[in-house]
Amino acid sequence: MSESQGLSVSDQKRKQIIEAAIAEFQERGFAGASMDRISDRAAVSKRTVYNHFASKDVLFRAIIDCLTDRMLAALDVVYVPGEDFRTQLLRLGWAEGNLLIDPCFMRMARMLMGETIRHPALAAEFAQQVDKMRAFGAFMDAAFADGALTQGTPELAATQFMGLIKARGFYPYLMTGGAPDRATMQAIVDDAVSLMIKAYT
Questions:
Q1: Per-residue model confidence as pLDDT tens digits over 127-184
Q2: Between vectors from CA 85 to CA 75 and to CA 134, what angle results, nearest 5°?
């Protein structure tokens, strides 16, 4: 059963509206987006759109919340003392990688990035809600404390590990569209893990 098949009619319509809004905001920006066009894209009535979202601003915030929830859930990876370090580092890498191979997540990220560039206050608010580096940093802090990593610093290790993944798995797709496939991401994560182990142990 697909994710959509498991949803109630109301939840399915909400999902259609959010996906349509992502496309509309990405194409026209927040200022140029139209609730009429969003309802057309979603194949629902304008009244249905407003039943779910009282305004364009509320709809945009719902997309931010959706993106935030996905990121926080995916990055709930905790270092376990004594467990094989490569296995744990692969798990952390895939926490990020699974987000980046999801086309819907990438569309949301692209749309939001465009808006945060135009609206710095929104960028600051989103950064406060989701600090992925904090999750990576906590993992590296624990790995250094356990002796799994011995070279460099936790802060640098966290920054470089995330950077290795995003350099090949996020930024090249940001402007061109789409998302990396699983095989591509597998190579990216494996390479990043191997480099980190060589550099920090």
A1: 666 667 788 999 999 999 999 999 999 999 999 999 999 999 999 998 788 899 999 9
A2: 30
Instruction: Return the structure tokens found at 140.
Output: 């590296």
* 48-87 confidence digits (pLDDT tens): 999 999 999 899 888 888 877 877 777 788 999 999 999 9
**Going from the N-terminus, what domains does the chain have, and what CATH number goes with each?**
1-54 (1.10.10.60), 63-200 (1.10.357.10)
As a whole number of angstroms, the distance between CA 129 and CA 140 comes to 21
Spatial distance between the Cα atoms of 196 and 179, rounded to a whole number of angstroms: 24
Q: Residue 54: count other Cβ atoms within 10 Å of its Cβ.
A: 10
Given a cut of 60, is residue 2 above it in pLDDT?
A: no
Cα distances (Å, whole numbers) of residue 41 to 32, 46, 81, 167: 15, 11, 49, 33
Distance (Å) of CA 61 to CA 6, 12, 96, 172, 191: 24, 18, 23, 26, 36
